[in-house]
Amino acid sequence: MGKLSIVATPIGNLEDITLRALRTLKECGVIYAEDTRVISKLLARYEIKKPLQRLDATMETKKVNEIVERLEAGEHVVLVSDAGTPGVSDPGARLVAHIREEIPNGVIEAIPGPSALTATLSIAGLDTSGFTFLGFLPHKKGRQTMLKKIAESELPVVLYESPHRILKLLKELEALKIPRAVVARELTKIHEELVSGSVAEVLEHFAMHPDRVRGEFVVIVAP
Ligand code: SAM
Q1: 89, 117, 183, best to mutate for ligand 1 pocket (most atoms within 8 Å of CB)
Q2: Which of 25, 43, 144, 178 sits in a 20 to 30 Å window from 127, CA-based?
Q3: How far is CA 195 from CA 41, 43, 76, 184, in A?
Q4: What residue ranges define each of the domains in the chain, with the CATH number in brackets?
């Protein structure tokens, strides 16, 4: 029986990769990647050459049999997403669930590493002994209900957001009279910044600097 390794990759800075992740990428037989072009840049940086297969969110279920066959043939298979930890708002969780069902005694190992979630929590300056992670909010159906629940939460709530919707989200939080927010942008990259304060202050910061309404965002709604 082979092995499936779920490997965390950098969320920006290509140096943020563990020794174990690099060894695993070097030793495996095949890498399934959310986008083969993205992982190719990381592999080129570390001079790793491996067969690549695409496995995006739409293909998780379809690829189960193929991966099960590989594992049964004794192959070492790696799964990576574009950035961070697979399965955290990224492809991986459904694939792992299916494989566990198909091969209950199979080896699925985590190669832990970066995640925008933990990176933001580590520098937010909040009490993170407990928190709620919701990933991306739904765009339409169920959004208002979720926002109301967030407003009532006694724990910090962590959200992922895109640059297209960050101002909208901050305006919605302000309308709900949520007192504080922490917004992390482009962590580990050149334009990394963390803005924290009242929701009105954070909103003003981004409204005043349209050039900073770019890149990748994590929002923590503070109770
Ligand atoms: N699996 C990834 C992880 O472990 O962080 C998350 C993937 S999710 C599709 C992508 C979202 O993560 C982005 O829209 C953004 O909200 C957040 N993100 C990823 N990289 C980031 C970074 N460098 N700085 C801030 N947020 C980031």
Answers
A1: 89
A2: 144
A3: 30, 33, 42, 6
A4: 3-111 (3.40.1010.10), 116-222 (3.30.950.10)
The CA 73 to ligand 1 mean position distance, Å, reads 34
List phi, psi (to 5°) of 18. Answer: -80, 160
Measured in Å, residue 63 CA sits from the centre of ligand 1 at 24
Question: Rounded distance, CA 127 to CA 9, Å?
Answer: 27
pLDDT digit string, tens, across residues 138-174: 999 999 999 999 999 999 999 999 999 999 999 999 9
| Phi, psi (rounded to 5 degrees) for 204 | -60, -40
User: Across the chain, how many H-helices and E-strands are there?
Assistant: 8, 10
Decide if 71 contacts 103 (C-beta within 8 A): yes
The number of beta carbons lying within 10 Å of the beta carbon of residue 105 is 6
Q: β-strands 76-80, 3-7: how paired?
A: parallel
What pLDDT, in 10s, does the model give residues 106-129? 999 999 999 999 999 999 999 999
| pLDDT, tens only, 193-212 | 999 999 999 999 999 999 99
